[in-house]
């Protein structure tokens, strides 16, 4: 019996990832990014523990252009994973699972994480006076 | 009477009675991390541009140190649970999958220990 001509279920790459698939994969990607980025948190704390000189070096690295870009991306990843994580916890509690609610909460999470990221950096520049 | 086949029982790959443990701990740590990170980000914002002495005094103060120790322990526990799921979903070579999971868990706990040690060192002024 020939079996290789049967219609197959389309592969993942065939589907258009809308406001359901993209938030899902973004949750994973931000989770992995945060895991990698958490090394920076440990480094920052270790620098504080090591003394003023090590701290000055850490601040110089974080204050450089590349450092600032990484920290900005890290902030967005944190807020996205936090907001979408709360969305997942609400689902786990059994709420918000209707498709229109799922699509709306996906947009709320996207907007909230962008707004919180920008707001955080505005506050950092206002407080820091840079 | 068990309905499972002798082979299935012999292989020992059936229910170990902790099927949802990983899932539950991932959620439990997630719930804990929500207030911890809102607090920590707020603390970082309010110390933007502060000098070394101010930042060290903040990190080493009792409330901050305790909350940071919790944040570090819970963060790395949550991170290695999440990374494990990612590896299980995308790596299909058994030895590579297992190695990645074990290495990530080890590295996560080394980082957690290093971070906690740093906070305690600042707190106790060592």
UniProtKB/TrEMBL annotation, chain A:
CDD domains: SQR_TypeC_SdhC
One Gene Ontology MF term: metal ion binding
Membrane topology qualifier: Multi-pass membrane protein
Keyword Lipid biosynthesis assigned: no
Primary location class: membrane
GO cellular component, one term: membrane
Compartment annotation: Membrane
Binding site for heme: 81
Cofactor(s) the record lists: heme
Family note: Belongs to the cytochrome b560 family.
Protein name per Swiss-Prot or TrEMBL: Succinate dehydrogenase cytochrome b556 subunit
TrEMBL record, chain B:
Obligatory cofactor(s): heme
Cell cycle listed as a keyword: no
Name the record gives this protein: Succinate dehydrogenase hydrophobic membrane anchor subunit
InterPro entries to which the protein is assigned, alphabetical: SQR/QFR_C/D, Succ_DH_anchor, SuccDH_FuR_B_TM-su
Chief localization: membrane
Lipid bilayer topology: Multi-pass membrane protein
Keyword Cell membrane applies: no
Annotated function: Membrane-anchoring subunit of succinate dehydrogenase (SDH).
Gene3D superfamilies: Fumarate reductase/succinate dehydrogenase, transmembrane subunit
Residue ranges of the TM segments: 28-49, 55-74, 106-124
GO terms classed as biological process: tricarboxylic acid cycle
Pathway assignment: Carbohydrate metabolism; tricarboxylic acid cycle
Keyword annotations from UniProtKB, A to Z: Electron transport, Heme, Iron, Membrane, Metal-binding, Transmembrane, Transmembrane helix, Transport, Tricarboxylic acid cycle
GO molecular function: heme binding; metal ion binding
Subcellular location: Membrane
Organism: Alkalilimnicola ehrlichii
An annotated GO cellular component: membrane
